[in-house]
Amino acid sequence: DRLFAYAAMPYIPPRREQKVDVIKNLKDDRPSGMVPGGGEVACLLCGADTRDDGFWYEIRAFGYGISGTSWQVKEGFVVTLEGLDEILWSYEYRDVDGHIYHVPFGMIDSQGHRTAEVYDWCIKHRGQVLPIKGEQRKSTPMNFTNLEFYPNSKKPLPGGVMLAKLDTNYYKNKLYSKLKIDSGDPGSWNYHFETTNHWCQMMVAEYIDEATGLWACPDHVANHGFDCSVYVLAAYEYYGVRNWPIPGPEPEQQPAPRRDDNTHVQRQRPSWFKKRR
């Protein structure tokens, strides 16, 4: 019998990837920093990704209703948390009609080498920002734990800090679904026309590993924009914007009835009043 030798090659599962053109097709005609007009924006929210050399961030406008339509307003990178302070709370973001919007809430990654610094910043802006920790395959999309001490220390955190733990796989799946919605349709994830190619590339850097069903990123490929979007999507769910009522038109004030000074207005007596005899 003739023997045959076959080289054994490792099985590499296929990647489910997105094309960068999918992101570019979600651009509209707004410049960077402008909020959509027409009264459809409920609020602005932020997500920030912490790196050793600085902080990536994304500010997004979210519409009213359960669809969660969103528009990128501003994104980028700052070296310091003071720079992030300025971007989030010193700028005034306006729509085409001149209405001013502020950023009431955001979430920031707290893991890595700058955890204590991020905790201090979140304490400084208590109620405006939450630190987060990403995990995979959690039993719930988001839960919380109260921290009393700095990491690896018995030094107390002043007043403590609440840490949000996110199932990043859950939110990445949600974001992936939103990126497939056509621009302008309910639930779409829109961009302004100045969004850079680099940001678009970061949005498609990760892929789903078919063997595990989990999101993964190739080595040495930037994915900070994708992480920022995951965090701002989590901020949207935490902040409960989908449950905010859509404001209706303000009721017109009716003019007070005109009464002549000499006119006697007869008032009906209450039922308990009895006339004295």
Description:
The chain is of the alpha/beta class and 277 residues long. It is 21% helix and 29% strand. It has an eight-stranded mixed sheet. Strand 3 and strand 4 form a beta hairpin. The chain starts with 14 loop residues before the first strand and ends in a 38-residue tail after the last helix. The mean pLDDT is 88.
Q: How is the topology of this model organized?
A:
Elements: E1 15-16, H1 20-24, E2 34-35, E3 41-51, E4 54-63, E5 70-78, H2 81-90, E6 93-95, E7 100-101, E8 105-109, H3 115-124, E9 129-135, E10 142-149, E11 156-167, H4 168-178, E12 189-190, H5 197-203, E13 207-209, E14 214-216, H6 224-239
Parallel strand pairs: 2-6, 3-8, 5-12, 8-9, 9-11
Antiparallel strand pairs: 1-13, 3-4, 4-5, 6-7, 10-11, 13-14
Helix pairs in contact: 4-6, 5-6
* Largest sheet entry: 8 strands, mixed
What oligomeric assembly is this protein in? Answer: single chain
Number-wise, the strands total 14
The share of residues in extended strands comes to: 25-35%
Q: Short description, anyone?
A:
The protein has 277 residues and is an alpha/beta fold. It contains 6 helices and 14 strands.
Summary keywords:
277 residues, alpha/beta, single chain
